[in-house]
Amino acid sequence: MNPFRCSLALFALLASMPAFAQEGVDSLIDRIVTPLSDGLSAMIFWEIPLPGVEQGIPFIVAWLVVAALVFTFYFGFINLRAMKHAFRLVRGDYTPPDAAGEVTHFQALATALSGTVGLGNIAGVALAVSIGGPGATFWMVLAGLFSMSTKFVECTLGVKYRNEYADGTVSGGPMYYLSKGLAAEYPRLKVFGRVLAVIFAVFCIGGALGAGAMFQTNQAFSQLVNVTGGENSVLNGFGWLFGLVIAVLVGLVIIGGIKSIARVTEKVVPLMAVLYVSSGLLIIGMNVEQLPAAFAAIIHGAFDPEGIYGGFIGVLILGFRRAAFSNEAGVGSAAIAHSAVRTDKPVTEGLVALYEPFIDTVVVCTITALVIIITGSLAEGSNIEGVALTSRAFAEAFDWFPIVLLVAVLMFAFSTTISWSYYGLKSFTYLFGEGQSKEVVFKLIVLGAVVVGSSINLASVMNFADAMILAMALPNLIGVYLLAPVVKRELKVYWDDYKAGRLKTYR
Amino acid sequence: MSRFLVGIDGSDCGERALDIAREHARAAGAELLVCYVINWSPFTFSTPQENAERHRRREEELSVARTKLLEPRVKSLIDEGIRAEGVARHGHPARTLVQLAEEHDASMIVIGRAGDTPMKTRIFGGTAAALVQSAPCPVLVVP
Q1: pTM of this prediction?
Q2: ipTM score here?
Q3: Contact check, Cβ <8 Å, B59/A168
Q4: Contact A168 B49 (CB under 8 A)
Q5: I need a surface site. Which of A12, A305, A401, B99 has the fewest CB within 10 A?
């Protein structure tokens, strides 16, 4: 047992070099990496001071929200006007029958969603509401609606500039549109595009290991400990064991190619999402007489929060921030997942991607917030937050719900880790070239990160992970701004065809 | 000339359906359309890795179905003097067979009932029942 653990720990240590700080050999690494990590964190979370408010707006939140607003206006409120058409695209109305067996719009959307729906929707919202009050929900939903436009642009670009290989596989995402797209549109920016693509790929690998593998298993384990008795849980201190189990399961899927585990997850994840949403709706339905009061609290809290958390601006920033963290619009991760769709019109996938922030932030987050507000869990105690608060709110109505939530959190963590390991892998192969052995090396690093993530509890590691994932938005959005005119041209052609009834429907 | 459609699935029950279809086609002087449907739904969930490889997998599935299942059977039918053609397609088995019957203007569908494993029994048994409900032409169900 011991040598086995040691070798694994050693391996895990290697995997998490950039973030792992202890005594010995790694203190050297730490000395090199910490300034980098701190510098990055400081820049990403640097707060732009605002007059009259204690807390400024974090740079990265402003960066994402400004992009969402710019794209919403630039594309003439595509987020609202294309909803109906996008729904018909997802339903397959425009998919020719001879494409049967290919990746459909629905499948690309579902895959991307399983990478984004997760702890952000359960824990993040609870965090926002417990700190900023009901009003934070309003700003979260508003930010979610605008960020749909960002997703539209980046996912269209992901499909347009993807690589289609001779063997029939596809690879897409920001790495490809930053390098190929910028080179094609702006020949003078060729080198700049490549630099952006490399920076993106580096951040994406960091995000995959940190926020994908480490953070997810860490949070899943802490919920497991919570449900089994908190401090007194028999599982307390066995994080490494939990990490090992998850690492073996993830390894069976991503290295072993064991389809059955992936298939079980694929069945259970949507089931959990549906169960979560319907339980939430049921609780709201059972307390429907309180709904007007809840909405009033949200609106009132949004515009006139009496002295809560930095007042109006504070609550607004909090809502925006949770939305950005939850739906990852602008981060570029979704563009990787969406690019596998089979279509000759990249715009269609962009339109389908509108539903990602809509489902993630507007629907799921709102339900979570309403349940927390309606059940009155918010007022009862101020010392719990995150998953625990959501768990208690749902338990007010259904006392068995914490168990369901545990399963949901485990499943979401598992599927998010698998999705992010793929995003990281694509970035890794973009940097180092494709190849069986290189891919296995990266996948082993991911597994190491899973074990480390559940064994340790270093806030700085988690901050670093968060910083990495959001840092992806820096190179990504610069490229997306520059390439937005391309999308505008494509959208015009497509939308004219649609309005003139020239698009062929098949049902 | 009339055209019969026969659904095969690589199981014994598909072979029994093919045998019966062959006899009917010979007796009626009809053309035989041998169909293999690869069970697939546009509304399933998959990992990003699977999606990236989906197009290649699809081509592989179709090519295996054509070379391993359809071509030998079509060849032996033609050798016997029956005009025959093979089709492989992804989709919901019953709905796809109905589509194929409509596209090729088939005058009869021949299908096996129950395969050799419990799983196949479920899938294929359900197909026969669904076909009886929705087919545009007579359906001959072979036990």
Answers
A1: 0.87
A2: 0.86
A3: yes
A4: no
A5: B99
